[in-house]
Amino acid sequence: MDFAQTDLLLAVAHHILIFSIAAVLAFEVGVVRQGLTATDIRRVGKVDAWYGILAALIIAVGFVRAVYAAKGWAYYSVNTFFWAKIVAFAIVGLLSVPPTIAYIRWRSALKTDPSFLPAPQAVASARRFLWMEVAVFALIPIFAAAMARGYGMPS
Description:
With about 160 residues, this protein is mainly α. It has seven helices and no strands. The longest helix is centred in the middle third of the chain and has 31 residues, at about 40-70.
């Protein structure tokens, strides 16, 4: 495989992973709502596990791409929008922790009590975090587009 093919393969993998994690986030926003059922809790817990897996893969492929792909580390390491994108991704990851902890607690409670349903305020809290994730996640493609066009480079 030549350099251009490697660059293309890394870009495609990175984009598929990003769209996949966006799909997981969209699923969670759609499922975690008032009226959540035991089936929903089990389902969202399983899907949320993919969130962490996809995030790890995005970081791995993204940094391999930054170091070995067309523009190289010399470009990315000094680009303000690259670092803004990384910070936004980290914030999204941090915002995902409270809902994940809630899902783990809810699934555990379901094992003890099959009729368990989370309190409305617990569901509302998880939804607030999910929507904050969506808001910050929306910045990532904006930063990526700016970065790809050379914005954020030192003068």
